[in-house]
Each structure stands twice: as structure tokens, then as C-alpha cells.
TrEMBL record, chain B:
It holds the Pfam family MlaD. PANTHER family: INTERMEMBRANE PHOSPHOLIPID TRANSPORT SYSTEM BINDING PROTEIN MLAD, INTERMEMBRANE PHOSPHOLIPID TRANSPORT SYSTEM BINDING PROTEIN MLAD-RELATED. This is Outer membrane lipid asymmetry maintenance protein MlaD. It comes from the Bacteria. GO terms for molecular function: phospholipid binding; phospholipid transporter activity. Residues 39-116 form the Mce/MlaD domain. It comes from Pseudomonas fulva.
Amino acid sequence: MRQKSILERVRLLGRSSIDVLAVLGRSCLFLFHALVGRGGIGGGFQLLTRQLYSVGVLSLAIVVVSGMFIGMVLALQGYSILTKYGSEQAVGQMVALTLLRELGPVVTALLFAGRAGSALTAEIGNMKSTEQLSSLEMIGVDPLKYIVAPRLWAGFISLPLLALIFSVVGIWGGSWVAVDWLGVYEGSFWANMQNSVSFTDDVLNGLIKSLVFAFVTTWIAVFQGYDCEPTSEGISRATTKTVVYASLAVLGLDFILTALMFGDF
Amino acid sequence: MQNRTLEIGVGLFLLAGILALLMLALRVSGLSASPATDTYKVYAYFDNIAGLTVRAKVTMAGVTIGKVTAIDLDRDSYTGRVTLQLDKSVDNLPTDSTASILTAGLLGEKYIGISVGGEEEVLKEGATIHDTQSSLVLEDLIGKFLLNSVGKEPRDAQPDN
């Protein structure tokens, strides 16, 4: 039971903040080198296609299914509230705006962090722990260019597309519940939606949101894999960190972006 | 061919994403392919525009013929000036047509309804609709009802501009 002196505590505080800053600096350098420093994607189209497949196409199922259910639930809840005021035609506009502005980008990014982000981290972490990355370097192949860059670009490209698909499927599910099941008049369902949704304010702002989320999520995932301790425990810690950090970053950034885009100030 | 199916999958994925964007643009936000239809501007001054917003629709006989593009306060007459953008195809509105602010349903949005007058002359670009009917404000109505004066006092004089 040795009491820590005050000086010792101050030292620990200083050390942990230096560690945090060092990680931030490393991740920025890493991103810079992977995207611009080393001259584009190594291996060209082949590697990118392969990553687009594993990051984007394989995430399609979970995104479509959850988008469908979220749209249906929104329509059900919206209907049960709006029908009290006799304005159940507004269900269409409610579902569309909620999906386009918030739930589409955010939920897709969260699912993406869990489905594709964790896989990216584990894959790269495993490459590191089995020394594949250093052997690549040894034979003169740049791992940043051939391993990291294609994965980063695949993430940047797929997440916005997934978010768009999520919104469309959600709106379709919502219309299925509201129009076909609950009997909202189809004409006013779509007309109300088209009147209130604007392409630039809602669709494009949602797209910008998902671009930002794609950038942050993929960056965190790939960096955590690249920077992890090369042990099996280190890989599991890095995977957990990816999901936690990416989810928190997405939710926090979402608040800031919403305040900037829709906050009227 | 493992590589081939993979590439087909990616291609389909990209197509699905672009298709989703198109669908959001056309079906959900109602972005029409030819937004640059010919329009002309008309002004209308209202005592109270409470609740009317930019992009609200302008209708005649229930048919949408234009939209509200700007709302500002006229400093001289202390009335709200609403700028209406009407389709060029509807260029036969008499100058004494009436513009009124109406509500769609109980809690619905506000829009402008135009009813036809009898004048020979028609509204041109930049013209002003003088005959206007302001938005119904619930509080005013309740106030009048409490004072038991609904229908007894003459309708508010229209602003002359």
C-alpha cells in the first residue's frame, strides 16, 4: 500500500495525454501517407474491386434487412400517433425525412462499423501479427499502398451507397406498411413526401453526412488494425476499440452535422 | 471464374447505389427533370401571413399553378409581402383576382388559393394582387368569439399598395 505522490499522479496524467496525442498524430500521418503520400492505390482496380466486394456487397444484406424493418416500424409508429390528429397522410413525409436526414446515414454507419469495420481491423491486425505486413515491406511492396489504401477507398465508396440503399428500402417498407396495410391513401402519401422533401436540403445533406461517417469509420477501423499490438489479445482489443470509437464518433459527429445543416443559425 | 462473379457483384452494387440516388431524387423529393419551366412573378400583400412558408404551393381551383418564392415585410405599409411564382401557362389571371391564405386540413400546411376576378386586364410580371385575404389566426377568432362580435364588425380594410 504505497501512496502515490502528487508528482507521480501528475506524471501519469502527462504520460497518458502524450500517448493520446501520439496516437492521433500517428493516425493522421497514416491517413495522409495512405491516401496521398504514396501515389494512389497499388494494384489498381483489381484490389479495389476485391475490397469493394468484401466491404460493400457483403454488407448489403444486413443493410437492406434493417432498412426494411426500420422503415416499417417508423410507418407503424407514425401512423398510430398521426391518426389521432387525422393527418395520417403525413406518414410519408415523416418516414422519408427521418430516414434521409438521420436514420439512413447514422444506422448504416453503425451497422457498417460492426459488420465491415471490425472485419477490416481483425484482418489487418492478423496480417500484422503474422508478420505479413513486415514481409511485404521486406520484398519492397508498400503495405500502405497495397493493403491499406484499397480498403480505405472501398469504405469511402461503399458506405454512402449503402446509406442511399438503406433509405430507399426503408421508404419502400414504410409505404408498404402505411399504404398497403394500414390503408393510407397512396396519392397523398407520395405527394406529401414530395412536397416536403427537398433534394438539396435533405437528400444531399444526408449524403454528405454519410460521406463524413464513411471517412471516419473506415479510418478508425483500418488504423486500429494497422496500429494494434501484434498479439491475439491485441487484435481483440483493437476490434472492440474500432466498434466503440467508430460508433461514438458517428453519433457525436451526427449531432454536430445536424446542428450545422438543419440548426438554423 | 471467381473473379468474374466478384466483379459482377461489385458492379451490381454500384448500380444499385446510383439507382437509389435517382429514386430518392425523382420519386421521394419530386425533383422534376425539367425544372426550368417558364414562370412570372406576382406580389401580394397580406395583413398577416402567419404560418405561410417559402415553397408553399399556390393553387387555383385546387390545381397547383405556382409556389411562394419569398416572404418579407413591407416597411411602408407594415404588411407582409409574398412573392408568388406562377406558371407562364396560366397567364390569364384578371387583375382583381383574390389571393387568400388557406390551410390544408386541420393541422396541415398553409398554401395560397387564388380565385378569379372579373376584370379584363390580366396580371403581368411584377404586378400586385390587391385583393387579399389573410391567414386565419385562431387566437383572433377566439378573441372575437369571446367578445361576441363575430360577423358584426366589417371585414378588415385591405391594404392599398
